[in-house]
Amino acid sequence: MCRRADTGSVAGMIEVAELTKRYGSTLAVDQLSFTVRPGQVTGFLGPNGAGKSTTMRTVLGLDNPTSGRTLVNGKRYAEIRWPLHEVGALLDAAAVHGGRRAADHLYCLARANRIGRARVTEVIEQVGLGGVARKRIGGFSLGMKQRLGVAAALLGDPGVLLFDEPVNGLDPEGIRWIRELMRALASEGRTVLVSSHLMSEMALTADHVLVLGRGRLVTETSMTDLLARFNRDVLVRTPRPAELSAALEAAGAVVLTDPDGALSVTGCDAVAIGDIAVRHGIAVHELTPRSASLEEAYLEITDESVQYRAGLEGSVR
Ligand SMILES: Nc1ncnc2c1ncn2[C@@H]1O[C@H](COP(=O)(O)OP(=O)(O)OP(=O)(O)O)[C@@H](O)[C@H]1O
Questions:
Q1: ipTM of the complex
Q2: 247: domain range?
Q3: pTM, whole model, 2 decimals?
Q4: For 1-15, 37-51, 137-151, 163-177, which range has the lowest pLDDT when averaged over its residues?
Q5: Which of 11, 33, 139, 305 is the most exposed place for a label (fewest CB within 10 A)?
Q6: Are 54 and 191 members of one domain?
């Protein structure tokens, strides 16, 4: 069961406030603010180099902000007495000591956080590594290392979890396992923040989405709203295209005629198009709302951010 820190209304929350991180002349994160809430999977989306890992590393106290702050359960990471009990993370699964045995790696972490050996056995079983617990990590596949990383993240039964690109390099079975795990953790009331550069991946896992572009928050929305925003047009097939086009245009729609005679209609939804056709006594053989693919939608959003920034750089500053 999920343990909760006694921190009032901020329990289970990740708060990023006005976070800026520079590496020399590189502005990795730029005045970034958002809050991640419990009980849902929050997707942290953005192209490579957008600043997702840097933000996560800062939340986990592995990097210091240039300015601004990050809080978990209302505290800076460094102020959390037994961190694994409050926040678990899977960052770079490959970054483990290959000479160690899997169980010993987890015992070390457990001891440092006052966690008993029984819990180590429990998480090893939970992630499906029971059969290789005494084996050296050096011989593990990436998928097994990923499972070991997840075991480490779950060790203290934390209410807040961060996963950085967790499906990278996994086989289909491993990918499904990670997705189901994240959904299960959120349904237990935990806060789950997961980064990805793939919109299609997020569509299958996330309830809520933060989109990052060049270190800035480009958009924050529910996955349902994001999908709805990218309804593109309605495909209409009719034996009387010229008459239906005229009727639709008279109602304010924009109508394009495809080479095969089908109509692409914007500015009018499928229901309104159907009603107009009936009013004019025109038969309709197909009426299909079309939306941009998720990847197209994502490219459109992140592209907007690039243009916006280019515009800014060329203006008042
Ligand atoms: N330790 C570092 N030193 C110098 N520059 C860095 C460092 N870490 C990140 N950066 C730079 O900061 C920017 C943001 O990188 P970051 O890894 O946070 O992005 P990301 O969205 O996680 O992308 P990716 O999916 O490729 O990891 C990039 O330009 C990157 O090159």
A1: 0.95
A2: 231-291
A3: 0.78
A4: 1-15
A5: 139
A6: yes
For 275-287, the pLDDT digits (tens) are: 999 999 999 999 9
Q: Cα–Cα distance between 2 and 82 in angstroms, integer?
A: 15
Residue 25 half-sphere exposure toward CB, CA atoms < 13 A: 0
Length of the chain: 317
Nearest CA to ligand 1 atom 2: 23
Please give the structure tokens belonging to residue 105: 């790696």
Sequential DSSP letters for 120-161: HHHHHHHTT-GGGTTSBGGG--HHHHHHHHHHHHHTT--SEE
Q: What percentage of the chain reaches a pLDDT higher than 70? A: 89
Closest to 214 in 3D by CA, of 44, 59, 51, 58: 51
Judged against a pLDDT cut of 60, whether residue 229 lies above it is answered with yes
Q: How far is the C-alpha of 27 from the C-alpha of 98, rounded, in Å? A: 34
What atom in ligand 1 is closest to the CA of residue 47? 21
Q: Which residues of 139-174 are buried (b: 16+ CB within 10 A; e: fewer)?
A: ebeebbbbbbbbbbbbbbbbbbbbbbbbbeebeeeb
Tally of structural domains, the chain: 3
Nearest atom, ligand 1, residue 215 CA = 14
Residue 27 falls inside a structural domain: yes
Instruction: Please indicate, yes or no, whether residues 152 and 260 belong to a single structural domain of this protein.
Output: no
Domain co-membership, 18 together with 49: yes
